[in-house]
Design goal:
Layout (H helix, E strand, L loop, with lengths): L23 H11 L4 E5 L2 E4 H17 L7 E5 L4 H12 L3 E5 L5 H11 L3 E5 L3 H7 L7 E5 L28 E2 H6 L15 E7 L7 E6 H15 L6 E4 L6 H14 L2 E4 L5 H11 L3 E5 H9 L13 E5 L5 H11 L3 E7 L4 E5 L12 E2 L4 E6 L2 E5 L6 E6 L6 E2 L3 H6 L1 E2 L2 E10 L5 E6 L4 E3 L2 E3 L1 H8 L5 E11 L3 E10 L9 H11 L8 E4 L13 H11 L1
Parallel strand pairs: 1-11, 3-4, 3-5, 4-8, 5-6, 6-7, 10-11, 10-12, 12-13, 13-14, 27-28
Antiparallel strand pairs: 1-2, 8-9, 9-20, 14-15, 15-16, 17-18, 17-19, 19-22, 21-22, 22-23, 24-25, 26-27
Helix pairs in contact: 1-2, 1-3, 2-3, 4-5, 7-8, 10-11
Length: 549
């Protein structure tokens, strides 16, 4: 099939990039000297210069090394978007550690699993997560806890509305360390020599078909390739203003909202949580040029009642992911801002984008063409060796320097996920004559809710911990705002017949699962459809729901 995307390849861009051998923390620390007096981060009005950022990274890195952190040791971050996260992430990498970014919505069981699977002995947390950690701490290998406080970086007179619902820690262990105390120690850090191609920088967890999340091993090269590639593809320039509101634990927010500004010498306007009014105020006040977003955010912005009171014309580029953009939202967004919403495609295993719409030639409905040094093929969904012609639907497989090394401590899953050097994404789609990719579905049983990937088996594992549930089946149903909504069909145990309530189960699930993961809709049933061997037929439930609605 060749590489048809070169027919429409942006004329100003090379087809290949030289990535060098410097790691991301090396380049960022160089920028901290180069732009030392410029702002790297603005957090609700609190400016952090590149010089302050660099000294904070080095002090925390030095402290970690002093505590005995060795190259390859895992350190977890369990925090919302705050300056603590940015400093911690880069300090962990600089010190030789491997970063494990945990979803701040994790409840106790989820936190315990990820800490034990990664083997992290040090964790850096925001105070709002401290109580959850304390409840599972003795079940993990955690030895060192560093606590950041929400007020550490909040100015006395914020320039934007500050989130009000940040939970305070009930009580602190006197042996735990204050983040700011460590920063103020000005510890000396010793640069580490890395094997650029082999050493792991990041364990990025992704949902698993078995119900147990898997850690994608992202090398220093994987990370640098994607950050540098995005800089050239999107044309980011020094001193550009970037709005950072996507969660940093997720690859899209991590790469395009957090790392890109400090890599390219821009300024990051950081928000802890998404609030549409705060977003439009930030774009207007700080003359934002770049914003990486998801479809639900764009829908909220277009529908915001006061949106026309704000000047959004400083925007030059807005990326969107998570779900397909409705045509009416695309048009209204362009009318408000003057820019196209540019869709991309990537995975945890590829540390974000492998295809993107070029800014000068976007196609609505497409997730774009393969970016620098990436090869994409469409193959028969049951035979990865059989490549399909343009326009024909099949499984999307990808190959490139941003594809992970493999799954952490999981050789079998790693082996099954690759074919002749290509990663099998499990996503279905087709490619048009210009090499633009279109997503048409998923081979895996996966639900896409508000940009998050949710495997039904993982939700079912948690539901089975409820004492009254005999059988359950989780599936996705269409939702105009979230893309898909999570629904659970449940059969109560005999002794709970007539005692379970659908609303109570939703409430229980909300308390025991992350906010994006728990089922919003529950249906109690006498039985679930099964085949001759007793396997629950998920597709029959989906069909049944669609026929009802």
């Amino acid at each position: 099939m060749g590489k048809p995307w070169f027919r429409k390849w942006p004329e100003a861009l090379p087809k290949k990039l030289d990535y060098g051998t410097k790691t991301l923390p090396e380049i960022v620390l160089e920028n901290c000297e180069k732009f030392r007096d410029e702002y790297a981060v603005i957090y609700y009005g609190r400016g952090i210069t590149f010089q302050e950022l660099g000294s904070s990274i080095q002090s925390l890195a030095g402290w970690l090394q002093e505590k005995g952190l060795g190259k390859g040791d895992r350190v977890a971050i369990y925090s919302d978007n705050t300056p603590h996260f940015i400093i911690s992430y880069l300090a962990i990498l600089a010190s030789g550690g491997v970063c494990v970014c945990l979803n701040p919505m994790f409840k106790e069981d989820e936190l315990e699993y990820h800490l034990n699977d990664s083997g992290a002995e040090t964790i850096i947390i925001l105070e709002s997560k401290y109580n959850t950690l304390q409840n599972v701490r003795n079940k993990t290998s955690i030895k060192n806890v560093i606590i950041g406080f929400f007020d550490d970086y909040i100015p006395e007179q914020p320039t934007l509305p500050v989130p009000k619902s940040i939970e305070k820690a009930k009580s602190l262990n006197h042996n735990d360390e204050s983040f700011m105390n460590i920063i103020n120690l000005n510890k000396k850090y010793f640069p580490v020599k890395f094997n650029f191609h082999e050493d792991i920088a990041l364990l990025q967890y992704t949902s698993g078909t078995s119900g147990f999340p898997k850690g994608s091993m992202i090398t220093h090269r994987n990370l640098l390739v994607n950050v540098k590639g995005a800089k050239h593809w999107w044309g980011y320039e020094k001193r550009d203003a970037h709005l950072a509101v996507l969660p940093f634990f997720h690859v899209t927010g991590m790469l395009h909202s957090m790392l890109q500004p400090v890599f390219s010498g821009g300024v990051m306007v950081l928000l802890t949580r998404f609030d549409v009014e705060t977003v439009v105020k930030a774009i207007d006040r700080y003359q934002i040029n770049h914003w990486s977003s998801i479809a639900t955010m764009n829908i909220a912005l277009v529908n915001f009642h006061d949106v026309k009171q704000y000047n959004l014309t400083s925007l030059r580029l807005v990326r969107s992911g998570g779900a397909r953009i409705p045509v009416n939202i695309y048009k209204e967004f362009k009318s408000l801002t003057g820019v196209d919403l540019l869709e991309s495609y990537g995975l945890s295993e590829t540390i974000s984008q492998v295809t993107s719409n070029p800014p000068n030639y976007p196609k609505l409905g497409s997730v774009g063409m393969p970016v620098f040094d990436v090869d994409v093929k469409i193959v028969h969904e049951n035979n990865p060796n059989k490549e399909l012609p343009l326009g024909e639907k099949g499984e999307i497989i990808v190959k490139g320097p941003q594809v992970m090394k493999g799954y952490w401590n999981n050789e079998l899953e790693t082996k099954e996920s690759f074919s002749k050097g290509f990663f099998l994404t499990g996503d279905l789609g087709y490619m048009d004559d210009d090499g633009f990719l279109y997503i048409s579905g998923r081979k895996k049983e996966i639900i896409k809710a508000s940009g998050y990937s949710v495997f039904p088996a993982e939700v079912e594992n948690y539901l089975y911990k409820h004492p009254g549930i005999a059988e359950c089946c989780v599936f996705g149903i269409p939702d105009p705002y979230r893309g898909e909504q999570i629904m659970a069909a449940i059969v109560p145990k005999d002794e709970y017949q007539g005692k379970l309530e659908e609303g109570k189960i939703v409430e229980w699930a909300r308390e025991n699962m992350s906010a994006y993961k728990y089922p919003r809709i529950v249906e109690l049933r006498e039985s679930l459809p099964k085949n001759a061997s007793g396997k629950i037929l998920r597709r029959n439930l989906v069909k049944e729901y669609n026929e009802k609605t």
